[in-house]
Amino acid sequence: MAIALSELVGYVAASLTTAALIPQALLIWRTRRAEGVSIGMYIVFSTGVALWIAYGLSARAWPVVVANVVTLGFSLWILAMKLRFERATRHGAKPMQ
């Protein structure tokens, strides 16, 4: 079963945009710091990604679904780390390393 060129382009584009979040997530994880991360941006971004998943499911656009499920995971991980490390800093504790 051959994959259509448009679907291949979709998978490549989705992979690249999803992979773009990896350096941010790893930097936050390694440094345990997320001062420059906007909570509002990640809430809006995660909501948008969830809507892309809904769209992809309704359109049966699997590159959209797969990429956005992974992207949502990274986005929520970054958001969770931001909240965790910010709370630790606010309470005067040094974030766990």
Itemize the secondary structure elements and their pairings:
Layout: H1 5-19, H2 22-31, H3 39-59, H4 62-90
Helix pairs in contact: 1-4, 2-4, 3-4
Properties at a glance:
4 helices; Monooxygenase; 97 residues; mainly alpha; single chain; 77% helix
Explain this structure to me?
It is found in: Membrane. Keywords: Membrane, Transmembrane, Transmembrane helix. It is a multi-pass membrane protein. Pfam families: PQ-loop. InterPro entries: PQ-loop_rpt (IPR006603), SemiSWEET (IPR047662). The chain is an all-alpha fold. It has one domain (10-90): Monooxygenase (Up-down Bundle), CATH 1.20.1280. Helices cover 77% and strands 0% of the residues. It has four helices and no strands. The protein has helices at 5-19, 22-31, 39-59, 62-90. It is elongated and about 55 Å long. The mean pLDDT is 89.
CATH-derived architecture: Up-down Bundle
Uncertain runs with pLDDT below 50, 5 residues or more?
none
In CATH, what is the class?
Mainly Alpha
Radius of gyration: 16 Å
Summarize the structure.
The chain is mainly α and 97 residues long.
